Amino acid sequence: MKTLSVEEDGAGQRLDNYLMRQLKGVPKTHVYRIIRSGEVRVNKGRASAETRLNAGDVVRLPPVRVSERAEQKSQSMAAQAGAYVPAKDFPILFEDDSFLAINKPAGVAVHGGSGVSFGVIEQLRMARPQAKFLELVHRLDRETSGILLVAKKRSALKNLQDQFRERETGKTYLALVLGTWPANKKVLDKPLHKYLLPGKGGEDGERRVKVVSKDDPDGMPSLTLVKVREASPSYSLLEVTIKTGRTHQIRVHLASEGMPIVGDDKYGDFEVNKALARATGPGALKRMFLHAWRLQCNHPATGERLELRADLPPELMQFLLQAMPATPPAPQ
User: Fold this and answer.
1) In the beta sheet, which residues pair with residue 291?
2) Is the distance from CB of 262 to CB of 176 less than 8 angstroms?
3) What CATH number should be reported for the domain holding residue 40?
4) Rg of the chain, C-alpha, whole Å
């Protein structure tokens, strides 16, 4: 057994993220397995992947063997990342001494891991070597574009994450779905359950989420609010506000109503997606049409209520104007 004492810079982190940093070369699936099995203890008690750590917490780990091959692969990825991580400052929507908000493009992970050498946070750190502290406040799916918050101080990180956890933030996305969304269907509250697909060689596969019944003990309460902005026989442009932050929540809730997000490669209509990806000109769409458009939060230092907005990226606006010509410009 091995014990770790959480330092100040680890305070506020989720247990899974903390362990990813501590257990270099250990597969992500194995990290989640030892957490789920109860072999990882925090202050002698069981803990979940979402548990937030405090400075001084004692984390007990079971023996974890890193194979020589995995270690070499980890070192190789680190070397590759060190050589190829571009020093990139993403489009800034807001910045001060406490935090910054960027407009994340689709196709970029928020952080490295699971076969991805680097993500937004690594690129930002390379671009800002003088910054003493840069940490992700929350996450966006790799395929989702839009507003992403990065803390520049430990106090700001904790304050903003507390706001997310206590549902004091307002998060609204723009999503284009297949079909005509019923204007009276405004509240989606089906519980969600996260699971792993079977992988190769007994390993766990990709993460997925499904809706479950209200009485399912594994179901997590989930609340999504939907407002129709514009509809046609083929598509509906929706403003989607999430009141809970479950994994893939918007994608699964909309798909469960029979109207998946256009371009969603996990829960969407694969034949439609293929056809759109093969198309040329403004009728082509090679990504998921989901964009984190608006975010409201209290400033972590002043308490002032802020509202941040990120314009639709050009590729989504172009497709929208072609797919729904009568659609007015997306909200700015």
Assistant:
1) 145, 174
2) yes
3) 3.10.290.10
4) 21
Among 67, 99, 122, give the residue marking a domain's end. Answer: 67
The number of residues making up the chain comes to 332
Q: Mean of the pLDDT values across residues 219-234?
A: 94
Which domain, by its residues, includes 229?
Answer: 166-323
Residue 257 has, within 13 A of its CA and on its CB side, a CA count of 24
pTM assigned to the model: 0.75
Among residues 21, 14, 314, the alpha carbon closest in space to that of 157 is found at 14
Alpha carbons 13 and 157: distance in angstroms, whole number: 9
How far apart (Å, rounded) are the C-alpha atoms in residues 325 and 317? 11
Q: Which two tokens stand for residue 261?
A: 């997000």
**What pLDDT is recorded for position 2?**
85
Distance (Å) of CA 332 to CA 149, 293, 317: 19, 8, 12
Strand segments, DSSP code E, in 83-191 are 92-95, 99-104, 135-136, 145-151, 170-178, 187-188
Nearest of 31, 60, 29, 55 to residue 43 by alpha carbon: 60
> Is there a single domain that holds both residue 62 and residue 170?
no
8 Å CB contact between 319 and 283: yes
In a domain, 291, yes or no: yes
Query: Residue 203 carries which side chain, given as an amino acid letter?
Result: E
Q: β-pairing, 41-42 with 58-61? A: antiparallel
Q: Is residue 102 part of a domain?
A: no
pLDDT for residue 71: 43
User: Among 11, 32, 67, where does a domain finish?
Assistant: 67
Number of domains in the chain: 2
pLDDT exceeds cutoff 90 at 238: yes
List the catalytic residues: 141
Write the DSSP assignment of 2-69 as a string of letters. EEEE--GGGTT-BHHHHHHHHSTTS-HHHHHHHHHTT-SEETTEE--TTPBP-TT-EEEE---PPPHH
Q: Is residue 123 part of a domain?
A: no
Asked if residue 87 belongs to a domain, the reply is: no
Residues 61 and 173 in one domain: no
